[in-house]
Amino acid sequence: MLTEEGIVLEAGAGSAYVQTVRTDACAGCSGKEACEALGGGNRENKVRVINPMGAEVGDRVVLGLSGDSFIKTSFLLYMVPVLGLIGGGILGHQLAPVLSMRSEPAAIIFSFSCLVLTFPVIRIIAKKLEKKKAYIPTIISILAHKQENLLKVGTGPGNLGGIEKDGCAS
Question: CA nearest 52: which of 21, 11, 20?
Fold first, then answer.
């Protein structure tokens, strides 16, 4: 199971939105470019999760995703475009005589055309997968509950970002 820590931003009936922060482990990950290409280029990501633990806004939680789901999703993101590229090249090479073209330009045109066509296909499949529970991260534990009024950062007028304890500026 793959895990990640985050803070609950919104909580509802059975689901929540959690803000995760890209960790140092992301720096060494070979798939970080895909995360950035899919909109995860920021250090902070807002993720919809299943909330069976009843986590509340401000709780620090651990999210989990099964390894099988991760592998299937990785295959979708990485192999489908490669297969489209290769399949397009083969198709272009085979259709070149029918189209009265040389095989190399036909293979190149069909390769890139099929590669580009895989992206909407991936998007459609991803939309279907995001509705299945197995592909949605789940809160597997609550590390810390939000501690209100113990320590908060003041941001009101006259307070230049000072630390307040129990409502008193220090």
Answer: 11
